[in-house]
Design goal:
This protein has eleven helices and three strands. It is mostly helical. The protein has two domains: about 10-75, Arc Repressor Mutant, subunit A, CATH 1.10.10.10; about 80-220, GntR ligand-binding domain-like (Four Helix Bundle (Hemerythrin (Met), subunit A), Up-down Bundle), CATH 1.20.120.530. Strands 1-3-2 form a three-stranded antiparallel β-sheet. A hairpin with a 3-residue loop joins strand 2 (about 65-70) and strand 3 (about 75). Helix 4 (about 80-105) packs across helix 6, helix 4 (about 80-105) packs antiparallel against helix 10 and helix 6 packs parallel to helix 9.
């Protein structure tokens, strides 16, 4: 079992530190779907007592990122293709409707924000930095919610992003060429926005969001030990 650590000084207490370290490693696939965790190993790796480890595990079980099998152990949950499809359905409804409103309200300053994000995202395509790429992908979509000012809708979509991060990461790790495809879709979407082409923008957003869900069964066959 390997984990990537995070500096403790970033957190106010040990409990939060342990939770965020484990969550980060699960979402970024350092801890693999189906992998068993060892409390003893974690205490040594993170140099903490078993109490914050157990508290973090309880929280991560509630987050559906860990599951406890009595008399067997604690395991990272497998990626659910059904949850991915369900999340995609909700995202598409919210994001296409937000986009329709945002296009009419889009100012030059927001356009500049998007262009700045795309410059950074292009760099992640060249460097194959998938983690940074996904973070910028979320920032790109967030701009439209900022334009509309609907923070409640964004809080829902942000949770959906987090809940599907593992499958999106796995997909991009499998096919690095998709990094450029995502980037190009964002560039094309911005052009529709600049032209105030609502129909073109909405159709592209629909296709962009559904890309991962449409590949769910294919990914399940390719990674049966990670997906269910």
């Amino acid at each position: 079992m390997l984990i990537a650590n995070i500096p403790k000084e970033k957190f106010s207490n040990t409990r939060e530190y342990v939770y965020e370290v484990l969550r980060y490693n699960i979402l970024n696939l350092t801890l693999k779907p189906g992998e068993q965790l060892s409390e003893i190993q974690l205490t040594k790796m993170l140099q903490v007592s078993r109490t914050p480890i157990r508290e973090a595990i309880i929280r991560l079980v509630s987050d559906d990122l860990l599951k406890i099998s009595p008399q067997v152990g604690t395991f990272v949950t497998k990626i659910s293709t059904k949850e991915m499809v369900d999340a995609t359905f909700v995202r598409e409804i919210i994001e296409t409707n937000i986009l329709k409103i945002a296009i009419d309200l889009m100012s030059s300053s927001y356009i500049q924000d998007i262009e700045n994000i795309l410059v950074k995202q292009k760099e992640t395509v060249l460097s194959l930095d998938i983690i940074a790429h996904l973070k910028l992908d979320q920032e790109f979509h967030h701009v439209f919610f900022r334009v509309v000012g609907n923070y409640t809708a964004w809080s829902v979509v942000k949770k959906l992003y987090e809940s599907t991060q593992r499958e999106r990461l796995l997909f991009l790790m499998t096919d690095n060429l998709q990094l450029e495809h995502v980037y190009n879709s964002h560039v094309e979407l911005l052009e529709y926005v600049k032209k105030r082409d609502i129909d073109g923008a909405v159709q592209l957003m629909h296709d962009h969001i559904y890309k991962y869900a449409n590949l769910a069964e294919e990914m399940k066959k390719k990674y049966p030990h990670y997906l269910e």
